[in-house]
Write a structure and sequence with these properties.
Layout lengths: L1 H37 L8 E9 L4 H7 L6 H7 L7 E9 L15 H7 L3 E6 L21 E2 L3 E3 L7 E2 L2 E9 L5 E10 L16 E3 L2 H14 L4 E7 L3 H5 L6 E5 L4 E4 L4 E5 L7 E7 L4 E5 L8
Parallel strand pairs: 1-2, 2-3, 4-6, 8-10, 10-11, 11-13
Antiparallel strand pairs: 1-7, 1-14, 5-9, 7-8, 12-13, 14-15
Length: about 300
Amino acid sequence: MKSNLSRKNIALLGISVIIFIALLAVYIPLKIYINREESDSPVTGKVSFNILITRNLSGALDQARSGNRNPDRTVELVTSSDNRESLLLIDFIEIVPGISAGEERPAGFPTDKLKKIGYRAVAPLILRRDSMKFLSGPLWLFDLPLPLVSANIVATKESSNNLRRWLITDIEARADGNSGSREIRIGIFSVSNPDSIRAEYSRFNHYNLISPGIAALEAINRMIKEECHLIIALCDAGTTEILDDLPGIDLILEMGEKNFSRRSKDALTVSFSGEEDGPVNLMVTYSKDSLRAAPGNYEPGKD
């Protein structure tokens, strides 16, 4: 008799959890829509800025792993710039087996140089299921003094990690014509591939992955409350479909296998392979009613 009651209680608990998640999935998008309607603070006219996208901290991770201390060409290219007012510099870090294993930072890793480069956001992405085992222990990667942004990698223990759920930053964008520049507020977050999520969620892990959809909705809602003009989501090709269905995202930067762009209901998606010799350069043109991304003309070291 007691066993039957226990099974019934477990079944009722499971049903309650499913209903709660379903209600949450309806409530948060509705709240995002209402908040965006109420807090719309558009930029007058048309503005533009450049995004430079690097991969694996401009090759520094691979250099450190191989023991090569020679300066990376992309790092030198980016650090040669003195004017970053109209530049958004972002990196995708791929968390794959072997690249971030161990509790200590590899010898020769150029921490100070990377810190001075001026990354606005660094997105750690878990791309494969076998990468999850590294989240059960400490990761030196998450201790780097850089803006590490992931909405669905969550620390479960107090530690010295620098991981953030999202990032909100202001940038001086170039105004159309010769009318100077205008400040716009940009919200940035990333989510990892849901196929890499293990079934078990343990409070004994150093880090866990939560639902990318729910995590993204939470980030979007916060950014709308902070009156961000643009909301940028970073992901890999396996996660884009989840973000496509969410309201409030303006630009999705997808690390994929080839370069292309497309529009979903609300967002513009730009996919890139990241295999070029140097950073991916995008020119983003934005106004209240339009958003466009095209190959950029930014040259570090020149105004």
